[in-house]
Amino acid sequence: MPLSPLRFAFRYLSVLLLLAPLFLASGCGRSGEPFPVRAFLAAPDNLLGNRYELEAEIDAQLNWREGLGRIIAVRTLRDDARLPIFISDSMKANLLVAQRYRFEVSVRKGGLLYVEYLKKL
């Protein structure tokens, strides 16, 4: 006997509610772990593939290539270190010097800090 639409919807929602904690648990999605500036400056390759949260102020635009993105110099709010980050054009971000942001960055090959997500503070 086939399930009625109401029973199907109820079962579907029940399964979603049971699985939701697995997807929302720590370790999934945004990391929230603070960016380790000193460790990065000492040995960026040790952090390859990791994701971190970085709170920083825009210091200067260093380079821009249409269709690709831009490299921005930022000053970290915690350590006052100057770091270059890459922001893809696909993010469609309008950035100005002295604006403060919370960036989610991943460490890529060559120590590239690639912005995955940003939010103005």
Question: Can you give keywords for this protein?
Answer:
OB fold (Dihydrolipoamide Acetyltransferase, E2P); 2 helices; elongated; five-stranded antiparallel beta sheet; alpha+beta; 121 residues
Architecture in CATH? Beta Barrel
CATH superfamily: Nucleic acid-binding proteins
Question: What is the average of the pLDDT values?
Answer: 85
Q: Would you give the CATH topology? A: OB fold (Dihydrolipoamide Acetyltransferase, E2P)
State the secondary-structure class.
alpha+beta
> Rg to the nearest angstrom?
20 Å
What is the topological layout?
Blueprint: H1 5-24, H2 37-42, E1 51-65, E2 69-76, E3 82-88, E4 100-108, E5 112-120
Antiparallel strand pairs: 1-2, 1-4, 2-3, 4-5
Architecture overview:
- Helices cover 21% and strands 40% of the residues.
- It is an alpha+beta fold.
- It has a single domain, classed as Nucleic acid-binding proteins (OB fold (Dihydrolipoamide Acetyltransferase, E2P)), CATH 2.40.50.140.
- The chain has a five-stranded antiparallel sheet with strand order 3-2-1-4-5, with no helix packed on it.
- The N and C termini lie far apart (56 Å).
Can you describe this structure in just a few lines?
The protein is α+β, with helices and mostly antiparallel strands. It has 2 helices and 5 strands; from the N terminus they run ααβββββ.
